Amino acid sequence: MKSRKQYLKKSQSILELVQETIRGAKIRLHEAPKRILSDEDVNSFIEKITSSKIYKSAVSPYEQVTATEQEEDRTSTSAYIIIRMNTPNQPERKSKAVEFYNGINREFKSLFPKKDGYTVTSSISETKVKIIVNGYAYVIKFAKPMDETLADTDVKEGLSVFFAYYDKQSEKITIDNFMEEVSSLLDFVKVKSNVPGLSNSTYVKCLNYLKRLVVSGKKKEMKTFKAYATTVNQNMSHGNTFATFFEKNDNFYVERDELFENIRKIGSQVSGYPKDKWCPGDIYFIRNGSESEIDKRLTLAKKQLSDNKEQALATMNSLFSDRYLENVDKSTPIVAVSLKMAEAQAGKLKSGFDEYADAPKDYSLDNEELSFKVEDFRNKIKELADKLKPITTSQDVDIKWEFINPDTIEDFETLKFKYASYKAVYFILTKIAENRVKDFDEAIVSLTAYGLGMINKSKSFLGSVNPPFFKVVANKDGSYKKPTLFKGGTPIGLVNLENPNSKPSIVISDKPTFKGLSMSFGLIIGSENFDMIISFRPNGASKRQITIELTKASPID
């Protein structure tokens, strides 16, 4: 076994190698192409990387490769790719990143031909490798293995489809009944060899997740078992809510495979928005026998796109129904369902800033700001506070904001992210409010609507961007929860939840110990009231920027 001294010496040599590589890396900046980076582009890039000789020698075996939204430098021409390795030790991952970086540079010519005057460049920092291919940026993060109890998107949504087809009334899974409940579900789905509407890879992932639950239960590994059971019980809750749909509409099936992806792909092309922002549905209920009609409208929408985008979007959205607990009209063969776990955030908002920004630096920290010292951040917070105080007012809404004194904050990270939050709020006031709506409160409503999937105003369309969809939020005990309809054109506005006849309020929490801000308010959508919270906080994947999301969007019964 290596001594601690030998280990530290090895770690130091790896660090020196990384630093030397960083100093030697030449980065050429490119003007971003006008075409957005699509999922197909990202998937093609991942396929080239993972099939390369250097990847197989430097990285394999790997646990999984996933692409996520790039929050650190949010543009439509960048992608953030996570490679989870069977290497929990960070110095070893750094070494692998350097080996991969050096090798991929040798293979550039064969992997990525030059195109349209663009070249291929790369850089490395810690366990991240950045590759720019023909103007598109891919940031590859070499990460530690994922906790086996954490369910990825395929598992969280795929298991809900399992329960959609399950014909037995399930009970909340506990250590006392797991063998009966889970074994019965496994027997049911194994008979099918696959579950309709799921790809084979997702089907296998879900089977393995259930099997690991059983193993942890048999071994009495209570902490691990509880984590598995908590996830599966929420999938059960989704399934029980699905059952209320199929009671009225037994001629529908659940779809999350090829047809689902094709509809989302064309919807994204027509709307110009990412697939999950055009339609937040994670699964579709599709009427049996309607596939040819769906294909006709998809073909028509693609033809209309070059002449009339509004008409093309209307054709796409006409496929979707606003009924769930009633019989679905035959003219609308699809019901979109957004699935949420009990404690999931309600929606990301920062990507909505692109509707109003000339450049990401309008709302994100630029390189000059990132070089600020403690006093610089304190002074800038004070400057923004002076600008914000007179404009965070409204005759119609009571805006409550007790501004912090930045001189009382010693922690550098807190000051940095506090300033970033202030800058984002100032952006909302000066850009969103000025360009689209009249007041701060209206800007907040507009931004919240974007996060919820109710885009009523955009650069390209006069009316609503989204088709109707239903949000199904899980209960941890596996029970039914009423689905909530979100539909474009639905009246939306602020409301006082305690006294509907009083002036609405927006309460901004600005604590000196919190690296950010939060906004609390009531919202009325159609006839339903919601308790809302928007959080401005550090982005977990970045030490440079904040993320902005709806951390709460709870309907009030």
Explain how this protein is built.
The structure is a single chain. The protein is of the alpha+beta class and 557 residues long. It has three domains: 4-143, Beta Polymerase, domain 2; 148-340, no CATH class; 347-454 and 490-555, no CATH class. The protein is built from 17 helices and 17 strands. The chain has helices at residues 4-24, 39-50, 53-58, 90-106, 108-111, 153-165, 178-192, 200-218, 222-248, 258-271, 275-278, 291-305, 309-317, 367-370, 374-391, 412-435, 440-452, and strands at 62-68, 78-85, 120-125, 128-133, 136-143, 252-255, 283-287, 334-340, 347-348, 398-401, 469-473, 484-486, 492-495, 505-509, 517-525, 528-538, 546-555. Strands 9, 10, 13, 14, 15, 16 and 17 form a seven-stranded mixed sheet that branches. A hairpin with a 2-residue loop joins β4 and β5. The longest helix has 27 residues, at 222-248. It is globular and about 65 Å long. The protein starts with a helix and ends with a strand. Residues 1-34 and 69-75 have low confidence and may be disordered.
Task: Label this structure with key terms.
557 residues, alpha+beta, 17 strands, 42% helix, disordered N terminus, 17 helices
Provide a concise account of the structure shown:
The protein has 557 residues and is an alpha+beta fold. The protein is built from 17 helices and 17 strands.
